[in-house]
Amino acid sequence: MKKLTILLVAITLLYACGNNRNETEKLGEIKVEIPVELKGNKQVLNYIEGVTEVANSYAALVDDMFDDVGEYAGMDESELSMMDKLKLVRATGEMTIKSAEIMSKWSKFTDMRMELDKQLSDAEVEALNQVWKQFEQRMEQVHAKHCQAFENSKENQQ
């Protein structure tokens, strides 16, 4: 039970600032700018499309979690009803399963990237590096949103 309590508190802290959000604060979909050097390479375009889908799925998952459990912002575990706790457990389980699927896809695309680089010219590799930076920035935005929620929740509890 202690592990469950710790898990629930951690999830509450992690996803807690949802009450103060509005629709404009959603991460939304990333719009990837494709360099000219890559526009004629169908294999690379398919790769970029796949990675974009994964990055967008992850951002949407985080947004959905904020919507699902944001009402518990700053609440102490003792304030949660059994139904609230069950909702958090359900949301946590769904997040875990969905994020595992997304991270598995992300890993596959990372592996594909290494193989793809071997087939590209130096100019194409550099152009793909620029695209990859856009994906890294997206993941940093998602991470920053997590951190901001955690910090806001800690401030609310003090």
Give the percentage of residues in beta strands. Answer: under 5%
Classification by helices and strands: mainly alpha
What is the assembly state of the chains in this entry? single chain
How is the main sheet built? none
| Mean pLDDT reading | 79
End-to-end separation in angstroms reads 25 Å
Pick out the low-confidence regions: 1-24
| Molecular shape | elongated
Helix content: over 70%
Helical run tally: 4
Radius of gyration, rounded? 19 Å
| Topology, number of strands | 0
Q: What is the helix/strand order?
A: HHHH
SSE diagram, text form:
Layout: H1 2-14, H2 42-69, H3 82-119, H4 122-157
Helix pairs in contact: 2-3, 2-4
Q: Could you explain the architecture of this structure?
A:
This protein is an all-alpha fold and 158 residues long. It is 73% helix and 0% strand. The protein contains 4 helices and no strands. The chain has helices at residues 2-14, 42-69, 82-119, 122-157. Helix 2 runs antiparallel to helix 3 and helix 2 packs parallel to helix 4. The longest helix has 38 residues, at 82-119. It is elongated and about 60 Å long. The protein starts with a helix and ends with a helix.
Features of the shown structure:
mainly alpha, 73% helix, single chain, 158 residues, 0% strand
Please provide a brief summary of the model.
By secondary structure, the protein is mainly α. The protein contains four helices and no strands.
